[in-house]
Amino acid sequence: MFPIRDHNPSQKTPYVTYALIVVNIVVFASYWGMFSDPRAINALFAAFALTPATVTGGSEWHTMLTSMFMHGGLMHLAGNMLFLYIFGDNLEEELGHLRYLGFYLVSGLLAALAHVISAPFSTVPLVGASGAIAGVMGGYLLLFPKARVDVLFIFIIFFKIFPIPAWVMLGVWFGLQLFNGVGVDTQSGGVAYWAHAGGFIAGMALILPFWLNRGGPLYWRRTEGHPPHPEAQYRMVKSAIPRAGQRRNGDAPGASTARSLTDIPRSGRPRR
Fold first, then answer.
1. What integer pLDDT is reported at residue 241 of this predicted model?
2. Which of 77, 111, 138, 233 satisfies CB 3.0 to 4.6 Å to 71 for a cystine?
3. pLDDT tens digit string along 209-223?
């Protein structure tokens, strides 16, 4: 289950969100070719990825910032940018461009710190914007808990898109980070669950003064837990792809001759 859009796209252009997406894509594109050269990619990650054991040793502190603009693969990048695109615009509209940028960067730094604390002796490099984006998600949850988010649910071969409140989707996501963070050996690598959880908590804590300044629960009453502008109306569009059906007498030459299931007799041999 993952989100594909929310129902309250911002009414102002989210320049910072777009810029962050572009920067992440450009940075990834600059070293994408190195993945075929293990020595080169490992040297790059050693210089700019966050390695907790190195940071706790008192060096390479800059990697807490640089690591949040690097990714370990194309799908890693695509997933992070999708989440940032969905949840970043409304937060940027409420905070303003510069304050939102500061919020994003501080959330990422605190997420990196949470990862270092959870695995202080790990020598596995950490890359990804997930911690900073988790902060955006935490801020979104506090400000817009009832905003509707369309999620794509996939179960084996069954899939369906349906809207759910943001607090359900984000609450489940945060719960999974905590559950996996407790049950996974963070020293040996894998997904940085505590960076996600730490970023999420940091985002909520950073946005708390802003929410209180807007009235706290009164802000929710005024907005009903939604971004303070009209909700977008989405509708399913009928596909323009023609359906293949049974050819009947009188059909024009070139019409579809695909047989329907009812055109095959019980013996399994098609009619002639």
1. 45
2. 77
3. 999 998 889 888 888
Q: String of b and e for 8-43 (b: at least 16 CB within 10 Å)?
A: bbbeeebebbeebbeebeebbeeeeeeeeeeeebee
Position 253 in a domain = no
Summarize the confidence of residues 165-170 as an average pLDDT.
Answer: 76
Euclidean distance between CA atoms 90 and 54, whole angstroms: 36
Is 246 a member of any domain? no
- DSSP 3-state of 268: coil
- Average of per-residue pLDDT across 224-241: 61
Instruction: Name the residue range of residue 176's domain.
Output: 2-223
The number of distinct structural domains making up the chain is 1
Tokens 């084996």 -> residue = 156
Q: Is-above-0.70 flag for pTM?
A: yes
Alpha-carbon distance 62 to 77, whole Å?
21
Can you read off the two tokens belonging to residue 114? 């949470």
Residue 128 has pLDDT above 70, yes or no: yes
The domain that holds 57 is classified in CATH as: 1.20.1540.10
